[in-house]
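I'll show a sample.
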Amino acid sequence: MQGKVDGKVALITGSGRGIGRAVALKLAAEGAKLVVNDLDVEPADETVQAIRDAGGEAIACVGSVSAPDFADRFIQTAVKAYGGLDIVVNNAGYTWDNVVQKMTDEQWYAMIDLHLTAPFRILRAAQPVIRQLSKSELQQGEHKMRKVVNISSVAGLFGNAGQVNYSAAKAGIVGMTKTLAKEWGRINTTVNCVAFGLVKTRLTGSAADNEMATIEGREIAIGVNPDLLQTVERSIPFGRGATPEEAAGAVYLFCIPESDFVSGQTLMCTGGITGI
């Protein structure tokens, strides 16, 4: 039995860990060929190996999505390995929080570059490839749909204290999604967005653990204040945050044929929260 995305080429940023990894494993299980990305070699290779061990196809493209040369390298990795691309998921990200009066320019631009400029560059690099593939397919009488899924957040829809940089970037990705949905319909490509609430990953664990992560040479404190974390979870109708696999399911909905006429939409994956 063929999977829902059998033979499709899927590129997912930040897919060595967390939500991105869960999306990669889900799409691979449904027959996609994966280009896996992570900042670090080890998690990227682990995801690639997990896909291969399950009988799938995957290769890694390691590096920072914020690097000026990353987008072209990412797209060309797919073209050279698999001959094209069908699904792009802009997932990579982390948070670097502060109240506005204490936020540095470095913090501001780090989040804008990561969550907004990087997806822009990736999709800019992808467009000529998709356009040419679509043109060739139409000349041959084929009708083939492609999918872009951008990742936003409830912070981008409703704001979140201490996250003016992240919230602004995630609001921007919603605007990018709506605009490209209007531009890319003519090349048979849907462009949609998933806005997550609380998803249980290493980045959203309890800050009481005092865990730090080295990200692009910066030591970033990760985790959420434990009291705030409990408050947030109590506000979710399901009483808990999503697992990465549940989060991946929301992305998957926009990748399958059943969503071929859905474009320009933002789906909230929040466990029932409809506003803040």
